[in-house]
């Protein structure tokens, strides 16, 4: 008869079993000992050895002090150099601004004088021509933009959106609400398509050779700067205002008003007067002199 093995006692605490060992998982060990073992060893060696003493401690403090003095000296020198250069830069900028204003004033005076002389030439010419020829010539000048015109039309006002600032970061947002040169180009083209007979931008008359372009942050119309707000006036038929408002260009700018805060308005105006444009600098092509043909010889001298 075989002897039965003893029945294990269910009341026995499993924690008393010394033969089973549980290794901690990686995350538990990481939270228990977040410091790398190398750092822990270095801290332990420093605690055992203490702070550097004698000439070593003095040398460390001396090097640190010299480094701080050198950095401070460099900062002071850079600051003094910047402040010493600032008056000269400010003075140079002020001088350039004065020159620009003087040249602009001189240009405006010359333009007024040119307009007076043009009016005098027109009066002298009309006195020589008969009424029919003078009227036909005035109509052609008005169509070409070389004479003042008067009539009912449309006024379009355009201006930049206020400077946008991000409410969270305080940084400036992309300047999508700023008026660009191509915006004025699109408005002018849309007015031409709506039937405009004459257009001006900030009292700069547009002609067939006019240019609207950007130079840095400035917009030039026929190489003359125009400032905000931008006012585009056009003379044309009575339905020009409705046709322009229904154009894709007007819808685009109304969307920019809602999304970016740009200023855009269109209204009909009675009795507009648009100035004449400057005399265009035309270039003429001339045929080259007729060259004398060189006789060609064929094989055999014939």
Automatic annotation (TrEMBL):
Biased composition, class Low complexity, residue ranges: 286-302
Region (Disordered): 277-302
Coiled coil: 100-127
Transmembrane segments: 59-79
A single Gene Ontology CC term: plasma membrane
InterPro entries named in the record: DUF881
Keywords: Coiled coil, Membrane, Transmembrane, Transmembrane helix
Pfam families: DUF881 (PF05949)
Similarity section: Belongs to the UPF0749 family.
Protein name, UniProt field: Membrane protein
Organism of derivation: Phytohabitans suffuscus
Lineage: Bacteria, Bacillati, Actinomycetota, Actinomycetes, Micromonosporales
